Amino acid sequence: MTDFVTDALRERLLEGVHAAGREVLAIYAEDFSVEAKADESPLTEADMASHHALVALLKALTPGVPVLSEESGEIPFETRRHWARYWLVDPLDGTKEFISRNGEFTLNVALVENGVPVFGIVHAPVLVTTWVGQAGQGAFKWKNEERFAIHVRVLPNPDIEPWKVVGSRRHGTGAFETFREGLPAHVCVSMGSSIKLCLVAEGEADLYPRLAPTCEWDTAAAQAVVTAAGGEVLDARTLQPLRCNQQEDLLNPDFIVAGERDARWERALKEALAE
Ligand SMILES: Nc1ncnc2c1ncn2[C@@H]1O[C@H](COP(=O)(O)O)[C@@H](OP(=O)(O)O)[C@H]1O
Ligand SMILES: [Mg+2]
């Protein structure tokens, strides 16, 4: 439960994120250049335009609340570990999807309180879709200006209806394949960016195992959506909820997003991680 984000603040945040999304779309529509970051991952003008727009928005709406963005540059753990509340931003998640122009990229803004993502906005401008989740207030999806309440779905009986698993377009691993081999009947779809977590939140997928690296900004906003929709984002080994800002680096452990706990996928996950 967070009471920091009032209805009025949420509306201003949504307007601002949509405005940043329009800046990103304007770049998407033109020829854009691609640079390589220090870690060899790609960076476009759109990542930086969205970063500047979102940081300015958050600083204007909530002066005094620190902002950590993927494109901020490093903030030492010694400084940020004292933050009881901060904004965590991935201005463009799915940069490779942006570059390949398949529309599967998102703008992500999370509010983290004491390590827990309690509020999140995930906006996919090409899909004209925005997911919002707020602890204690549920989760919503806007699609073409229409608003729907969303909720995870109950795992179906796989003999009647196969489970739905969502995986990365680019980060499939042997462990992911072993996990699938341990599952009952299921179908698998590939998707880029934090949209994967949102698909679990809205009951379009049952499981998203991520047995490959990600950073906290990749997941925090969508984790708030998933939890507000009744699901969980769990460390794949401990099955405890992911927490932010607990350590020097900003890497997540391997994790799984699930609408519901179930011994069958927990067993498959254990086998996949034992390899
Ligand atoms: N080696 C690595 N270490 C940390 N994060 C990584 C990584 N390889 C990929 N990622 C993260 O995975 C995200 C893409 O995941 P997916 O392929 O499932 O969409 C990237 O987001 P960005 O596009 O914001 O850089 C990046 O942050
Ligand atoms: Mg990202």
UniProtKB/TrEMBL annotation:
* One GO biological process term: phosphatidylinositol phosphate biosynthetic process
GO-annotated cellular components? plasma membrane
Q: How does it sit in the membrane?
A: Peripheral membrane protein
Q: What is its EC number?
A: 3.1.3.7
Task: Read off the InterPro entries from this record.
Answer: CysQ, CysQ/Inositol_MonoPase, Inositol_monoP_metal-BS, Inositol_monophosphatase-like, Inositol_monophosphatase_CS
Q: What is its main location?
A: membrane
Keywords for this entry? Cell inner membrane, Cell membrane, Hydrolase, Magnesium, Membrane, Metal-binding
Checking Pfam families in the record gives:
Inositol_P
The record lists substrate as bound by E70, L92, D93, G94, T95, D218
Q: Which SUPFAM superfamilies match?
A: Carbohydrate phosphatase
Where is Mg(2+) 1 annotated to bind?
E70, D90, L92, D218
Required co-factor?
Mg(2+)
Origin: domain of life: Bacteria
UniProt binding sites for Mg(2+) 2: D90, D93, D218
This one is known as 3'(2'),5'-bisphosphate nucleotidase CysQ
Organism this protein belongs to:
Halomonas ventosae
Function comment: Converts adenosine-3',5'-bisphosphate (PAP) to AMP.
User: What parts of the sequence cross the membrane?
Assistant: none
Q: Does the keyword Metal-binding apply?
A: yes
Family label: Belongs to the inositol monophosphatase superfamily. CysQ family.
* Catalysed reactions, as listed in the record: adenosine 3',5'-bisphosphate + H2O = AMP + phosphate
Q: Where in the cell is it found?
A: Cell inner membrane
One example GO MF annotation = 3'(2'),5'-bisphosphate nucleotidase activity
